[in-house]
Amino acid sequence: MLPNKTTLMQRKIMFIILDGLGDRPCKEFNGLTPLQKADLPSFDLLAAKGMIGRHYPLGPGIPPGSDTAQLSMLGYDIRTEYPGRGYFEALGWGLKVENGDVVFRANFGTVEREGKNLIVKDRRAGRISGKDAESVASAVAEMDLLNGEVKAFLRHTLEHRGILILKGLDLKPEVTDVDPHEVGYPVLEPQPLTPSPSAKKTALALKEFVLKSYKILKDLEVNIERERSGLLPANIVLPRGAASKLLIPSFKEKWGLESAAIAVGPLYRGIAKSMGMRLLEVEGATGMPNSNFRGKIEVGLSALDSGFDFVFVHIKATDVASHMKDPKLKVEILERIDGALEPILDLPEDYLLLLTGDHSTPCSLGKHSGDPVPLMISGKDIPRDDAGRFDELRCIKGGLGTVLGRDIMRLVLNYSNRALEYGLKPKPEEIPYIPRLSQLVPLSIS
Ligand code: ZN
Ligand code: ZN
């Protein structure tokens, strides 16, 4: 291996994602977006010290999930390097997923029988949590399916959520969701997505699991008790997002960077783990609007000071406010984040900041959209534009232009002086994704 030294100063990188950052005009603010409405002196100062622009995480008009967006923004090809969301979540919860297992995210929901169908009345069983959720989960924690050929394991995670793992020979994550994703719709029969016998077998096992769970849960003591006290029973498990284990190249292998991550939500922790990033803990970090934003920034900075080249900081609260359709809360959160950015307002010259969102979540929609997302690269002596302020409108005119999520790591490497000149890697069919300094091997003279 070559020593990671060059005469050129290579910058350390702080990569901050404010989940669901981008927004649309809000009628509550007379047509301003939360970024426009909020008072954000730190954002603006950082924008003035660099360039702004926008990115489409996956492509124009495609509403991304957080996982596909972040994977793409960290330079992974979601066509070949995306295992499915359930796998990331299972990793984030510290569950062991073996080769051949099929993993699902699952909700405990409430259904009512209408004829032969089970109609979804609530996808979260009244946001069941605590002991009730534990009792429901333990009633269906383990099950034999297809005459013992397949075993199901369900683990409760947060509130109404869990992870379902199917284990057995010849299973494939090529099945549709059981969760119809809408209230008032019937629970769906899982369908194989390919003609392969494995997909069919998986669909059959999943169907059996859902039917058996319903039979157990509809008469479960805790559910009868809940109904008596006017609460919704959790009488169905609604799996979705089939996934399987997929080993992807580590962040170090891809980019030659020693990386750490600061994230709370299991999905984001799972993404970081799958890339071999070191997870750092921050006291008071909750993944919610009350999170310790300042602590995250400080821990991130000290990680860079202590030898990491790259630190990924994920802040979820912005997306939470958007899903709640609460633009005022989003403004409050943005202003608190702005205050938390103080320690990085005057970064040393060998540090680079990238700040953006993983997708837009307009408060008016309450869900992810395919809109572009504001993007900023900031640091001492990097080129500047004259946009000055950081919001959706100004970012249209910014010097970075509008790029794709998968371009972001290239920009980061370029401005941190780590990119290799095109042509060094003989792959004419693609722009080189991977200037892997760490993979260069010195010539050895015998
Ligand atoms: Zn997200
Ligand atoms: Zn979201």
Q: Quick gist of this model?
A:
With 446 residues, this protein is of the alpha/beta class. The protein has 14 helices and 14 strands. It has 2 domains: 12-82 and 248-415, 3-Layer(aba) Sandwich (Alkaline Phosphatase, subunit A), CATH 3.40.720.10; 89-243, no CATH class.
Tell me what you see in this structure.
This protein has 446 residues and is an alpha/beta fold. The chain folds into two domains: 12-82 and 248-415, Alkaline Phosphatase, subunit A, CATH 3.40.720; 89-243, no CATH class. The protein contains 14 helices and 14 strands. It has helices at residues 34-37, 41-48, 66-73, 85-92, 130-139, 197-218, 221-228, 251-255, 266-274, 293-305, 317-323, 327-340, 392-396, 408-415, and strands at residues 12-18, 50-56, 102-114, 117-122, 142-145, 150-156, 161-168, 236-243, 259-262, 278-279, 310-315, 351-356, 373-378, 401-404. It has an eight-stranded mixed β-sheet with strand order 10-9-11-1-12-13-2-14, sandwiched between helices. Strands 3, 4, 5, 6, 7 and 8 form a six-stranded antiparallel β-sheet that branches. Helix 4 (85-92) packs across helix 9 and helix 10 packs parallel to helix 12 (327-340). It starts with 11 loop residues before the first strand and ends in a 31-residue tail after the last helix. The model is unreliable at 431-437 (pLDDT under 50). It binds zinc ion (ZN) (2 copies).
